[in-house]
Amino acid sequence: MSARTAGRKGRPWRRLRDLVLAASGGICALCGLPGANSVDHIVPLSKGGAPMAPSNLRAAHSTCNSKRGNRMQLRTVKTSRDWYGRE
Ligand SMILES: [Zn+2]
Q1: What is the full per-residue pLDDT of the chain (87 aa) written as tens digits?
Q2: What does the alpha-carbon distance between residue 69 and residue 33 come to, in Å, rounded to a whole number?
Q3: How many angstroms separate the alpha carbon of residue 75 from the centre of ligand 1?
Q4: 24 alpha carbon to ligand 1 midpoint, in Å?
């Protein structure tokens, strides 16, 4: 039971993050500029993305990361059912 929550932000996570940053050369996957200082989950955890899978991680600036969060909210509105339900 505790295995799922353990280590989310612990040492394994930091190691994984360093690996992802090194593999990308520090290039932010969202804006394409160097200096990425965090990693972004491609499939958000809220959508069932794997928190510790390297294939679900990419380097990003923490600022780009939060911008992307805003954009995804807009997208949710646009693809909401109301747009299609209007005949
Ligand atoms: Zn960026």
Answers
A1: 445 555 556 788 899 999 999 999 999 999 999 999 999 999 989 999 999 999 999 999 999 988 876 555 544 444 445 555 555
A2: 19
A3: 20
A4: 12
Q: Which H/E stretch holds residue 75?
A: helix 62-78
- Measure 40 CA to ligand 1 centroid, in angstroms: 10
Is 2 inside any structural domain?
Answer: no
Number of structural domains, the chain?
1
The Cα–Cα gap between 80 and 6 comes to 35
pTM beyond 0.70, yes or no: no
**Domain containing 67 — which CATH number?**
3.40.1800
Ligand 1 centroid to Cα of residue 74, in Å, is 19
